Amino acid sequence: MFRINRITILAAVMSMLLSGCVVEQRSERFGAPTADPGSSVSESRGEYRGEFATLGSAQTEIIVASIKSGDSETINTVLKHPNDFTPPVLFALADQIMNMNEPVAAMFWYYTAQLRARSDANKSLDPTVRAGLTTMNSFYGHTIGKYAATHIPELKLAMSKVMEYDTIAVRSYDPRWVAVLGRDALTEERIAFAPKESFDTINEETRKGFYKGYLNALRSTGDDAGVPAELP
Length: 232
Prior knowledge:
Shape: globular
Largest sheet: none
Strand content: under 5%
Structural class: mainly alpha
Number of domains: 1
Number of strands: 0
Distance between the termini: 42 Å
Radius of gyration: 17 Å
Number of helices: 11
């Protein structure tokens, strides 16, 4: 049963949407940021080796499952410390908020998760990670995507806040979580990943590409009125 205080969710979400708040404090309940490759993937692969085993995938699967079950404590923890958690956690959060009939907030978290997942995949040097990400993404956001396609003004509001937030938010989770989606996780012990000093550049380029794709989608249907041609 989904039991969470609606006012708590709305207060947390609107605070971030309207003030651009950046949460940097880590969650004590769940400890260090962890990763989740999607339960259907990890269960078939068994235990990871080497650096892949340090990503905390199993722990985050527990968090995702808790969100899906409607655990209010878990959901509130993620809302308070969203930058501590990998994109799959935010995907699960978005779906649950959509279940509460809060579509703008759901779209905000869903597209934030999509953007972050793409930028993390772009840091991976394993070319199979992107296909794995596509598979993982298919588990989330079905209702959100359908709603967005028929509620363009709300989509525009949510996406403008996603772009604003992603520019200033400080991500505390390990972007290497995405490595478990690739084939290297089956055969290797070391994670092939871009150097840390390149992360900001990759994030910025991914954000520009993500926005361009969004804008092109609006243009294709004639719904781009009022949307800037480029990010500020």
